[in-house]
Amino acid sequence: MFVQDVINLIHRIPHVNFRFRSVSDVFNYDLQSEYAQAIAIFAIFSLLFGLLLLLIITITWVCQCCLRKETNQRSRRRIRNFTIGLFTISVICFALLGGCLYGNERINRSVAKSVNGLEDVFRNLKLAASQVNIIRDTQENATKHVDDLVKLIDKKTRETPDYNKTLLEEVDSALTAVSDHVDDVKNKLLNVNVTLTDIKKIEKAKLYVDRFEYDRLF
């Protein structure tokens, strides 16, 4: 596909910063990043190339208009070549303009999908954090109930000297298993909580996408 070939050709252009040092090709929408410097350099060179073409066309046109020759002495071949050259440049410019419009439309659709996706991710993260808080409260209540039950059993065994040791061992084993499971849940909740609180990258990405969406709309 022609458009994809043009995109791949543009991607092969070396990305350099203002110090003309190579930078990573990974897209980073940060105005302070080296990738933004590479985009600025590419835009400046493209603008200079366009201005150079415009200057060449203008000078050629002026020279053709200022030639003091009679109509019958003008070279029809030169005029034809000049016309073909202008037409070719116009076709190239319109093709580049069409490619830019197509790329802009694809970027707009991608940004819109990214915004919706990040909003869903952010919403799900908040929901997960809320569920983790509920589970943590349940775990704390379960730990409290197990501790209270252990204290109650210890109190009853002291009040009743002729208790059933076999039954007490079974109850103690069951309480130990429950306590271990509760502690395991507590450790997993701590890991999940660390993961949910360390979402600065997602918040930063959402900020950049919102800024990109604002620039795209206005």
Short description:
The protein is mainly alpha-helical and 218 residues long. It is built from five helices and no strands. It comes from Panagrolaimus sp. PS1159.
Structural commentary:
The protein is mostly helical. It has a domain at 108-218. The chain has five helices and no strands. The chain has helices spanning 2-11, 34-66, 76-159, 165-197, 200-217. α3 (76-159) packs antiparallel against α4 and α3 (76-159) packs antiparallel against α5.
List the defining traits of the structure above.
mainly alpha; 218 residues; single chain; 5 helices
- What gross morphology would you assign? rod-shaped
The end-to-end distance, rounded to whole angstroms, is: 31 Å
Measured as a percent range, the helix fraction is over 70%
Structural class, by secondary structure, is mainly alpha
The whole-angstrom Rg is 36 Å
Number of strands: 0
**Percent in strands:** under 5%
SS element count, helices: 5
SSE succession: HHHHH
The biggest sheet amounts to:
none
Organism: Panagrolaimus sp. PS1159
Protein name: Protein tweety homolog
